[in-house]
Specification:
The protein is mainly beta. 2% of the residues lie in helices and 47% in strands. It contains 2 helices and 46 strands. It has a 46-stranded antiparallel β-sheet, covered by helices on one side.
Length: 596
């Protein structure tokens, strides 16, 4: 490559034989020069394979001194190596090494020795430059590894041997990576990503050039919190000290460069409380000490795809598993709970698409559902089924909308038929229906929608769709009662009660005329003290009855309906009339007295 043969030879004009002898000496590199191509009289062509194709051309100046040489080294008909000469010595070599028609390497020589090399990419940009010392050994090299047109990697050599590599990946003129070498093997690697002159990563290598230890500052706070250790070039352990107290908070062990064990101290108390085990690099089990008391209370198993398969938990921290979770393909399917720690998992929650749709509570004796709670797609409660007696049969049903109770039905006598219905609005009871005689007809209704009453109970005994009895309550105390005793859809009897629930007054249709014509008044013992009767239905009483201790003592009557009594009767202790007086002329004075 460094031959200067042509500088020592003079060629007489017209000596064809000598031209061919000289051409035998040219087996060099491709050069392309249009000026040479135009001066064909001073060039020698040769077909080295004798296949009829020219594969070497040497060109000379008028003094018969070599100027250029081009070669078709792969004999494809295209010249791919060009050598340029000055004063008979090669000064530049250009090559198309991959035979794609483009020059991809240039070598520059001085005094027959290479001093510089340029590598050219497919876009005709120089992406590598190498400088050589006086012995043609590499001295310095820089590369454009990203294809951006900017050099980002730099290599320093000593006696042709690499001693330092620096990198500027963001191409801002500031180095981010330094790798030092000894005997062509890395000794140390330093990384400064944020260019604050503090190394976030330090890697140390052994004599074989394999990493032994590395230190990492992931949060770039100027302190290394991650330490990695290697054996035969493969990582065997990693330690993390997240709170920088010089004690590892996380230790990861590797086998064949794959994680085999990982343990963490999540609360930085110096004790590991989270343990993960792996098989062939895949997570298989995780255990935790959730309350940091030194005892494991969380156990999780994973399937072959590293998806959760089962979780067992001691949620009460009593040393006993009280909750289990089952998964399929990583999706939660079921949770079972032992709330009272009796080793019987009585509550089961079922999931679909990771949302609960049913929760069942089992009775320990019957092992049948004691309660079923159904949820919609939003995990909002829709229906609840209850076995209120624990006999293994559901007897109560609750219905919800927007997580609010709207209806309750119940089979109170457990005959398989609903005999109680309660309706709610805004979580408040509105109406309650009951079939007390279990004949399938709800004859009793408790209505809580009356503004002046806390509850009104209605009863339809003859099942004609019309209530026969009404009971009005305030704060649970009966204050009024209305009755239709002959089922003619008209009230026959009304009772009134005081705040203590004692009867104080009643009104009845004594004559069965459809009019309430008799009014009674009672004492604190609910004994009658007075009664008033309206016989002509003019809404004014015309007969008055007076009682003592529940016994009638006198009667007054207004026979002419002028609003004043004109007949008076007196009774003894046996309720026998003892005398009677009558005002014939209605002047308010008795005219006739009857004595018994």
């Amino acid at each position: 490559m460094h031959s200067n043969t042509f500088s020592k030879i003079s060629l007489p004009s017209g000596s064809i034989l000598l031209w061919f002898v000289l051409f035998q000496l040219f087996l060099g590199t491709v050069l392309y020069d249009t000026s040479m191509a135009s001066n064909q009289d001073n060039c020698i062509q040769k077909d080295t394979l004798k296949n009829g194709k020219i594969d070497q051309i040497a060109c000379f100046d008028t003094n018969h001194t070599i100027q250029s040489l081009k070669i078709d080294s792969n004999h494809d008909g295209v010249f791919n190596r060009f050598q340029y000469y000055q004063k008979g010595q090669v000064v530049r070599i250009e090559e198309d090494r991959d035979f794609d028609g483009h020059i991809d390497c240039r070598d520059y020589l001085e005094n027959g020795k290479r001093v510089r090399q340029e590598r050219i990419n497919g876009q005709d940009h120089i992406d590598q430059i190498t400088l050589f010392d006086k012995n043609e050994k590499p001295l310095f090299m820089k590369k454009d590894t990203s294809g951006s047109g900017q050099f980002d990697s730099f290599f320093d050599f000593k006696d042709g041997v690499l001693i330092l590599k620096t990198s500027d990946p963001d191409e801002n003129g500031k180095m981010n990576e330094w790798i030092t070498f000894k005997d062509l093997r890395p000794v140390e690697r330093k990384l400064d990503k944020n260019e604050d002159h503090i190394f976030e990563t330090l890697v140390y290598y052994n004599e074989q050039g394999l990493p032994e230890k590395s230190m990492h500052d992931h949060d770039m706070d100027g302190k290394h919190e991650v330490f990695r250790y290697y054996e035969h070039g493969q990582i065997i352990k990693q330690e993390k000290d997240m709170n920088l107290d010089t004690t590892p908070d996380q230790i990861t062990v590797f086998e064949n460069s794959m994680v085999s064990e990982n343990k963490l101290d999540t609360n930085f108390d110096g004790l590991f409380d989270d343990f993960l085990t792996y098989h062939q690099g895949k997570l298989k089990q995780r255990t935790k000490d959730m309350n940091h008391d030194g005892k494991l209370d969380f156990f999780c198993d994973y399937d072959n795809d590293e998806q959760i398969k089962e979780i067992q938990e001691d949620t009460r921290y009593k040393g006993q598993i009280d909750r289990k979770k089952e998964f399929v393909n990583g999706h939660l399917q079921k949770i079972v709970d032992d709330h009272n720690l009796d080793n019987f998992f009585e509550t089961m929650s079922y999931f679909k698409n990771n949302k609960m749709y049913l929760q069942t509570t089992l009775h320990k004796v019957t092992q049948k559902p004691e309660m079923n709670i159904y949820f919609n797609s939003n995990e909002t409660k829709e229906r609840v089924e209850i076995d209120s007696t624990g006999n293994g049969t559901i007897d109560t049903w609750q219905y919800y909308k927007d997580n609010q109770l709207t209806k309750l039905t119940k089979d109170e006598n457990h005959d398989g038929h609903i005999d109680l219905e309660i309706f709610y609005k805004n979580n408040k009871k509105q109406k309650q229906m009951k079939d007390s005689d279990n004949d399938g007809f709800f004859e009793t209704c408790q209505d809580f929608t009356y503004p002046q009453w806390s509850m009104v109970m209605k009863q339809d005994f003859n099942q004609d769709g019309h209530e026969d009895f009404y009971y009005y309550y305030t704060d649970g105390i009966l204050r009024q009662k209305e009755m239709d005793e002959d089922y003619d859809h008209q009230v026959d009897y009304i009772e009134y009660y005081n705040e203590a629930g004692h009867l104080i007054k009643s009104i009845e249709d004594e004559a069965h005329s459809g009019k309430l014509d008799l009014t009674w008044y009672y004492d604190d013992s609910e004994l009658p003290v007075r009664a008033e009767k309206d016989t002509n239905n003019d809404h004014s009483p015309d007969i008055w009855f007076y009682y003592q201790e529940g016994r009638i003592v006198s009667v007054e009557e207004d026979s002419n309906y002028d609003g004043k009594p004109d007949i008076w009767e007196m009774y003894d202790a046996s309720e026998t009339m003892i005398h009677r007086k009558k005002d014939i002329d209605f002047d308010g004075i008795a005219d006739i007295v009857f004595q018994s």
